[in-house]
Amino acid sequence: GAGVSQSPSNKVTEKGKDVELRCDPISGHTALYWYRQSLGQGLEFLIYFQGNSAPDKSGLPSDRFSAERTGGSVSTLTIQRTQQEDSAVYLCASSSNTEAFFGQGTRLTVV
Amino acid sequence: GQQLNQSPQSMFIQEGEDVSMNCTSSSIFNTWLWYKQDPGEGPVLLIALYKAGELTSNGRLTAQFGITRKDSFLNISASIPSDVGIYFCAGPEYGNKLVFGAGTILRVKS
């Protein structure tokens, strides 16, 4: 596709359930980021994948959060046993060098 | 990791006014990027700067890469209502990983 694609665009889940958020980066981009953004706030870094290197997981807030990037392309962010404080917009970005391009985000609501 | 300090945190200006925001880092950057995020959307790249002292314009936007390589500013001239949003600066730290400023929230009174 022409840009970064994220799915679903909106997700409502019950507290305690697991969720998976998907990111399809721009073809050929070696770097992929996940960020979390609460309403009106800045970008909270979660995880960074760069090529075949070990991912930088330093931003993951707890062990309930994990992410994979299969075949250097599609990435999935998984949140286990969701809590209400996990409600936010989750943004994915990809890059081939320095300039990163963002998807539209997934709005997660935990009820 | 590196810290980016972005200011002001928010601005509420009159339509037609000029806007200026800046970003400083604790260490040298080789690239400065400026993004804008419209409500309900992902951030979009506005301007990329690659050379110290570089001044780049994109319509009513002008951005500069500071000579010390530790700062950058973004100016918006003659603001209009659609300039509303959050503006982020960013730069690469180790391994090209981008670090972002906390953002400047811009509101425009028409």
Name the helix and strand elements of chain A from N-terminus to C-terminus, one letter apiece: EEEEEEEEEE
Classify the beta-strand content of chain A into a percent band. over 45%
Category by helix and strand content of chain A:
mainly beta
The average pLDDT value of chain B, as a whole number, equals 93
Mean pLDDT of chain A: 95
End-to-end separation of chain B: 40 Å
Largest sheet of chain A: 6 strands, mixed
Q: Largest interface, by Cβ-Cβ below 8 angstroms: which chains and how many residues each?
A: A-B, 24 and 23 residues
Approximate strand percentage of chain B: over 45%
Determine Rg of chain A (CA atoms, Å): 13 Å
Distance between the termini of chain A: 33 Å
Share of helical residues of chain B: under 10%
Class from helix and strand fractions of chain B: mainly beta
Query: What oligomeric state is this?
Result: heterodimer
The H-and-E topology of chain B, N to C, reads as EEEEEEEEEEE
Total E-strand runs of chain B: 11
What do these coordinates show?
The complex is a heterodimer of chains A (about 110) and B (about 110). In chain A, about 0% of the residues lie in helices and about 50% in strands. Chain A has about 110 residues and is an all-beta fold. In chain A, strand 6 and strand 7 (about 75-80) form a beta hairpin. The termini of chain A are far apart. With about 110 residues, chain B is mostly beta strands. Helix content of chain B is about 0%, strand content about 55%. In chain B, the strands form two sheets. In chain B, strands 2, 4, 5, 9, 10 and 11 form a six-stranded mixed sheet that branches. A five-stranded antiparallel sheet of chain B has the order 1-3-8-7-6, with no helix packed on it. The radius of gyration of chain B is 13 Å and the shape is globular. At the A-B interface, strand 5, strand 8 and strand 9 of A face strand 5, strand 9 and strand 10 of B.
